[in-house]
């Protein structure tokens, strides 16, 4: 399926103009989970430092002998060929504590929290290095577009958005670089995880059969609000290592059963990317949950936790926070909807193709189309940077909400046969042609497509955790003590 149709919206709209920007964007500074969770590309933290840097010295210092050189920063850890400085760690720790307090998560002891955060920074740095090795980058045009969408969906002009950042004592320059990094990591995860997930026809058949059985038994689709703690097991772990990690999970479960605060325990012990958010996974539809989780919470009431669950990634403990009937549960036999059959030519913006170049190329192609000098199909095959190029740019029948908003708005204004002007989306610039429209019920192909999306989402968390574990295990990491 081509990227345009499958792209998810990464920024959730907010209902109030008074949204506190720091709280909206802060969760990403400690997140290393995959795009499957659709987290906004909006972290809040100082930019990464690839080497030791000269910064202001901390207020509290140890006495030093006269003539002894003063250390104004030092190395906390070495990750492959780069370092994480103590100043960087301290600044990030300050932001994490502020976010946790703002979300009402009980803050663990500073030493435990710093240890957790250092592990997150190590994993983050390893991902950034992998992205560089893969030749991935984020240019200023894409970055500006992403920041503009963050401001727009928080109902703020760019001027007001920058004022809000100033109010929250956030450097706009650092903010831009943090977003650049998060977009980079998202693109890496798409490359290394999302594009490698396979779904068989038999899996789709089984999913649709189960869905039909649920309808026949009148089982309502449910949504669950969950939190989790993961005790990670290294790849190719020895039996002794597995036993040691299980013992740690048992100790964690005992703390919870003795009345320990789940959020605090997660922030202290969990190896999952969501640990510093108290382990919160948020609301998930039941068909988007791993079967292991769904079976384990089936008999729980809100507030209860599961026993220890073992997966390829390690040992999980899941807390059921709440459950509800799913809102807007898809109904395959619902009222007919309007569908659009469209095709497009995409020119991506890259380090070697600027936005102006992409737009100019499409204007030249449109001129050829307007003058009947070529067909849309032929030009798409020759010039489009999308997977649909081999089909002459044909995207098939598109349902409302299938595409990104910019594409949808432009497509909706076109009459059958009409070709748009160059349209900008997060993917680049497009020429869009509407071929025909129809109003119909959901087709069997559409049902199978929806089933694939649900299965993919169910698989993504485990696939992402597998990839992150492998990346972390491959990285050379050297921890530095205060005396180094």
Automatic annotation (TrEMBL):
- Extract the GO molecular function terms from the UniProt entry: peptide binding; peptidyl-prolyl cis-trans isomerase activity; unfolded protein binding
Per UniProt, the enzyme's principal EC class comes to: isomerase
| Segments crossing the lipid bilayer | none
Q: Which GO terms describe its biological process?
A: Gram-negative-bacterium-type cell outer membrane assembly; protein folding; protein stabilization
Q: Name one Pfam family in it.
A: SurA_N
Query: Does the keyword field hold Phosphoprotein?
Result: no
Q: Which terms are listed as keywords in the entry? A: Chaperone, Isomerase, Periplasm, Repeat, Rotamase, Signal
Gene Ontology CC annotation, any one: outer membrane-bounded periplasmic space
Subcellular location(s) per record:
Periplasm
Q: Which InterPro entries match?
A: OMP_Chaperone_SurA, PPIase_dom_sf, PPIase_PpiC, PPIase_PpiC_CS, PPIase_SurA, SurA_N, Trigger_fact/SurA_dom_sf
Q: Where is this region: Disordered?
A: 47-68
Q: Which residues form the PpiC domain?
A: 221-322, 337-436
**Highest rank taxon of the organism:** Bacteria
Which transformation does this protein catalyse, written as a reaction?
[protein]-peptidylproline (omega=180) = [protein]-peptidylproline (omega=0)
Q: What is its EC number?
A: 5.2.1.8
Identify the main location: periplasm
Record remark: domains: The PPIase activity resides only in the second parvulin domain. The N-terminal region and the C-terminal tail are necessary and sufficient for the chaperone activity of SurA. The PPIase activity is dispensable for SurA to function as a chaperone. The N-terminal region and the C-terminal tail are also required for porin recognition.
Q: Tell me which PANTHER family the record gives.
A: CHAPERONE SURA (PTHR47637:SF1)
Function description: Chaperone involved in the correct folding and assembly of outer membrane proteins. Recognizes specific patterns of aromatic residues and the orientation of their side chains, which are found more frequently in integral outer membrane proteins. May act in both early periplasmic and late outer membrane-associated steps of protein maturation.
Name of the protein this chain belongs to: Chaperone SurA
Q: Which organism is it from?
A: Glaciimonas immobilis
Q: From which lineage does this chain's organism come?
A: Bacteria, Pseudomonadati, Pseudomonadota, Betaproteobacteria, Burkholderiales
């Amino acid at each position: 399926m081509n990227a345009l149709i499958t792209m998810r919206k990464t920024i959730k709209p907010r209902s109030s103009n008074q949204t506190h920007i720091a709280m909206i964007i802060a969760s990403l500074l400690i997140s290393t989970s995959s795009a499957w969770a659709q987290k906004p590309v909006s972290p809040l933290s100082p930019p990464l430092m690839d080497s030791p840097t000269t910064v202001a010295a901390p207020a509290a210092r140890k006495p030093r002998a006269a003539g002894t050189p003063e250390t104004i920063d030092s190395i906390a850890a070495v990750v492959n060929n780069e370092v994480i400085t103590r100043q960087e760690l301290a600044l990030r720790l300050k932001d994490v504590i502020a976010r946790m307090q703002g979300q009402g998560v009980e803050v663990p002891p500073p030493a435990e929290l710093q240890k957790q955060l250092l592990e997150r920074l190590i994993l983050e740095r390893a991902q950034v290095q992998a992205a560089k090795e893969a030749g991935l980058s984020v240019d200023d045009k894409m970055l500006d577009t992403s920041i503009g969408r963050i401001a727009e969906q928080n109902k703020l002009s760019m001027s007001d958005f920058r004022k809000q950042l100033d109010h929250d004592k956030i450097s706009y320059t650092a903010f831009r670089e943090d977003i650049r990094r998060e977009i980079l990591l998202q693109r890496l995860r798409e490359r290394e995880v999302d594009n490698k997930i396979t779904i068989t026809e038999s899996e789709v058949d089984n999913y649709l059969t189960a869905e039909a059985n649920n309808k026949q038994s009148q089982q309502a689709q449910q949504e669950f609000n969950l939190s989790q703690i993961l005790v990670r097991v290294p790849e190719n772990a020895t039996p002794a290592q597995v036993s040691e990690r299980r013992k740690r999970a048992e100790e964690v479960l005992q703390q919870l059963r003795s009345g320990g605060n789940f959020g605090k325990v997660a922030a202290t012990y969990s190896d999952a990317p969501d640990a510093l958010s108290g382990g919160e996974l948020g609301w998930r539809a039941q068909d988007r949950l791993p079967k292991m989780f769904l079976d384990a919470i089936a008999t729980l009431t809100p507030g209860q936790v599961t026993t220890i669950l073992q997966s390829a990634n390690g040992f999980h403990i899941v807390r059921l926070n709440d459950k509800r009937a799913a809102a807007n549960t898809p109904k395959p036999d619902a009222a007919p909807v309007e569908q659009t059959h469209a095709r497009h030519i995409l020119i991506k913006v890259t380090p070697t193709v600027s936005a102006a170049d992409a737009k100019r190329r499409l204007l030249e192609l449109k001129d050829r189309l307007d003058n009947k000098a070529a067909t849309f199909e032929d030009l798409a095959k020759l010039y489009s940077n999308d997977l649909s190029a081999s089909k002459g740019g044909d995207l098939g029948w598109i349902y409302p909400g299938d595409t990104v908003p910019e594409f949808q708005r432009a497509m909706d204004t076109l009459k059958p046969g009409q070709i748009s002007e160059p349209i900008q989306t997060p993917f680049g610039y497009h020429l869009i042609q509407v071929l025909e429209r129809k109003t119909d019920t959901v087709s069997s192909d559409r049902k199978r497509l929806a089933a694939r999306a649900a299965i993919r989402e169910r698989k993504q968390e485990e696939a992402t955790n597998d990839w992150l574990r492998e990346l972390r295990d491959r990285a050379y990491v050297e921890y530095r003590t205060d005396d180094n």
